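Researcher: Please generate the 3D structure of the following complex. Treat every line as part of one assembly.
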Amino acid sequence: MGRYVIRRLLQMIPVFIGSTFLIFFMVYALGDPVAALFGDKAPDPATAARIRAELYLDQPLWKQYGHYMGQILGGEFGTAFNGQKVTELMADAFPVTLRLTLVAIAVEIVVGIVLGVLSGLRRGRTVDTTVLLLTLVVVSIPTFVSGYVLQYLLGAKWGWVSPSVSPEARLDELILPGVVLALTSLAYVTRLTRTSVAENSRADYIRTAVAKGLPPRRIIGRHLLRNSLIPVVTFIGTDVGALMGGAIVTERIFNIHGVGYQLYQGILRQNSPTVVGFVTILVLVFLMANLVVDLLYAVLDPRIRYA
Amino acid sequence: MPQQHHEHRPDPHRPDPHRPDPHRPDPHRPVLLDVRDLQVEFRTRDGVAKAVNGVSYSVDAGETLAVLGESGSGKSVTAQAVMGIVDSPPGFVTGGQVFFRGQDLLTMAPETRRRLRGAKLAMIFQDALSALNPVLSVGTQLSEMFMVHEDMTRKDSRAKAVELMERVRIPAAKDRVNDYPHQFSGGMRQRIMIAMALALEPDLIIADEPTTALDVTVQAQVMDLLAELRREYDMGLILITHDLGVVADVADKIAVMYAGRIVETAPVRELYAAPAHPYTRGLLDSIPRLDRKGEQLYAIKGLPPNLTAIPPGCPFNPRCPRAQDICRTDRPPLFPVAPGRTSACHFWKETLDEGQR
Amino acid sequence: MPDHGPLPPPDPDRVTPPEPEEIITPAGGGAMSLATSEAETLEPVSGKARSLWSDAWHDLRRNPVFVVSALIILFLVLIALWPGLIAGGNPLTCDLAKAQDGPAPGHPFGFDAQGCDVYTRTVHGARASITVGICATAGATLLGSVLGGLAGYYGGWWDALLSRLADVFFGIPIILGGLVFLSVVPSGSLWPVVGFIVLLGWPQIARIARGSVVTVKQNDYVQAARALGAGDRRLLLRHIAPNAVAPVIVVATIALGTYIALEATLSFLGVGLKPPTVSWGIDISSASVQIRNAPHMLLWPAGALSITVLAFIMLGDAVRDALDPKLR
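Model: Done. Output below.
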């Protein structure tokens, strides 16, 4: 197991470098960070050249990247457009987005697994068909549509929840945004659970469990779900990383000052350190989530043994 | 294998397999398992497949019945219907009775039936690798029998699981009880299946091709173990197989199935000596024999019928070397051939005579 | 051994085929084997053999989900090509005096914040979505299946490289990548959006294509063809591609729906399409500001967008069910 973890960590290094370099390339090579610093004014050539030299922008791209990564490893993420340190922005933003993500994951687990198990056990019946159709509809409605519609209906029209989120982003305020963020994944979790349950319920070992005279509750709880939830757990694990990076739209709709909000600001104002810094952390989170999922797999499924 | 189990019960007149037999030794004690006119169908997209069409057989304690047939003959489905584990949908038991010690399993309350399953009737499946739960240790899967049926504590049932594994001669049972099915060899896995079926010392065991998935050398070991344990516990055994070689050694009587029907029943040695159905005869003739070296091996021509459209008359008629007009129009009932023998062939007499070799 | 005589003449109405196939084959070791297969098959033998594709088509035609989604898509493609068919007006002629007005005669969906006719704009918005969806899917599928297929076929370092490369793209959250990419390239028209979706979409297709080719490659008929001396080119095109293409088609159909949603999301965030291009995403974005006063402005383009995405996803789902008989 230890060797496997080390091998996986080593494999992650090129992916990490690749992903961050790709973003770095887009921001620093395709964009013009210096021009962005001056906004609409044209910078005077001498100042521009000085800044370029300070930022290593006169060096070849791979050297710039190396310099940047060296700084990041030293904890130096640079300065955001408003003069704040990027690390300060992160300290504010990541806890908020993490809370939002956890709410979304909780919704996925509770609603998605329950619906998936229900429809998987009643394959081909009305419940199943309804749930399946519902998941397709949910997947088809883009987050920014469902976000606005739910915010309008629940927040503004019926007044059930507060339509926007305060800067502290308390957990109860995050329920509606969490649901909106979860919706698409929720549909996937439901379908995945349903397929997995339906497939496993026809497995030979389930027939054995019935032949053993086990009560239905035990057959489902201990034999069916234990097997069926393995792919679901791994999907939810990888989704943690994806949701954190995908919260831009949700955070914008509900005005949540999390990672997505800061990134959006950074992109709008072409503040390169903010963008690359946040993305670097997100890629890291994503890769770590994947590693955890791989290890979890081994715990859940004894057939998988890592050499 | 020595046929010792015939010695303690030498009575050649066994109960008629398809209806209550007035000659049964003790008329007040109901026979262990009595299947009557069982019907099972599968409603598929391509039509209704009649997998079992009026099968009757019976097994008593201490007796071994071999059910012989090709794939799709309905031999496994009959057993599944007895156990109550037919996949439904698409499978439905549409008629008949299954008496277990005089009680009809099919009309019983589901909960009552569940308590019988595993405890009184147990089943051994063909492919232990897929029939055992891959993510639970074999110890867990064995011990849950005791926890569920006998309310034993986790610790006691674990000890029983080890005991069971020793019983089926798994080496180092104590160390292996926490292993998972994939960590065992095929033969060892099948022993675990057998241990699981034996756990609560059931009255009847149904073994569905218990050795088909195993290597030839391991097959004999597993069959021997099964026969030995059956004797020891004095259980009834239904052995579902397509392997006539296995049957000859362990079975008392044979039911041959074809297209969801029983076409012949007979005590095992009588059937081998002279089959009363052309299908059985074809099966026997296609066994390679040392004393017929150099002759061309016989094979039954054609394919088994499509179960959604079983031919009228005798279902075997399109493949039967003896088929006459009557075979294409009239479905033959099970004719009594001799005490304890039946055959569903219009020409059973001719077949029998020809077989007196 | 007695003579068993000839078989009865084959009857054309019988299901039993008169082939001289020997079902009962002698097995070695003295034991006899009645059947070649290990398990009893309950699936009845079908009357005539049907191929995967004709079988799938047979199912699809009877599947209401497929029929409905295919009709919706046909309709959408038609109005994307000729929006004038059902909306004669110009989506860019607007009258500020009517801004945010409700439905009026000749204007069933009312007016938006600029006083433009919502119905006309909704109909004309189909073109951008459908074009982006189809072009991006075509590009990503072509690139992904060629790269993934070759990786699956040749394996080795090329496969390893491609898998790592795909990982790199998977590591970037897609909306985030879109924001960064489209904010630095000159954008506003369809093509940067299409280009970006192809750039981040191909790894998904490549992964599916690779897996599918690896599975098919191991089949006996491929090995047989190879043993008979078929070259790589012939093996790939004649033997592997036709059998490996089904999962790719399914994923591509569903991806088409999600790409349309992605385009709308990027336009909504202000980095995708830009006015004067008519796009549902832009209209939803501008309507969202006024959602409390005039929800109808958001409802129609949002509904059109959702139905379009739904149609493609349902189509993909129906095709998957038809091609994958495992889960019936």
